[in-house]
Amino acid sequence: MFTQVTEALARFSRIGALISLLGATHALSLILNWFSINYDNVGRSLITGYTFMEPLLLSLTAGGAAGATGVLASNIRDLTKLRLVTPLLSFTASGLALLSPLYTYLVKLSSFEGLNFIPEIGLFASLFTGIAIAGASVLALIAGLRTRVAAYSTPPPYWATAREEAEAFTEIREPVAEAQTTVYEQPPEREQRVAEAAGGQCPICGDIISGGELGECSSCGAVFHKDCLNVWADLGNKCPSCGGELRG
Which fold has domain 188-248? Predict the structure, then answer.
């Protein structure tokens, strides 16, 4: 389970870094020439990405959203938040990045009638980076879906099935005569759960619980290796069995 969580976090981090790089490249395309205007082969004017205010703001916002995607993808350790935040911000960045050159051509330049506008390299760079960010956003969405499936693909923990079997066995147990009944001092409830879990699988790492320092979920009573519980609490602090808080 640790391997799956670690790989998922690394995957989101790499995708976030790629989106940030593409967002920075899109912002740099503003200094390039997007269009040129020829005046009957006599004169020539150039239109850059920052010539008009609206496309400039759209592209800068797209670059900021892409940069925020990379920062959050590298720092958030909660997979539930990562699956939501990374695709949302990246799709927002790609939409703004594509809207900027399209708005320049369809809205701003259309108001100048009778002029011949020739696309330049800056326009193609801005469109390409916008499409590339959209592709990276799809990768982030797919990574989120794959991580969600992997998180719930493990078998049920041993302690849960053991408890169900014990309850079923209790229902068919024959009563014992009072004369043969001997009262013993019962161990604490936590020690009973630890004893039941011995020999089973740790719900986090899947290894056999054979002894040593153990920990448990305060919500559902699931028993884990102490080291597994400490690492799992740092990754998300959510019980893999019931989803409750492992530590207050």
Answer: Herpes Virus-1 (3.30.40)
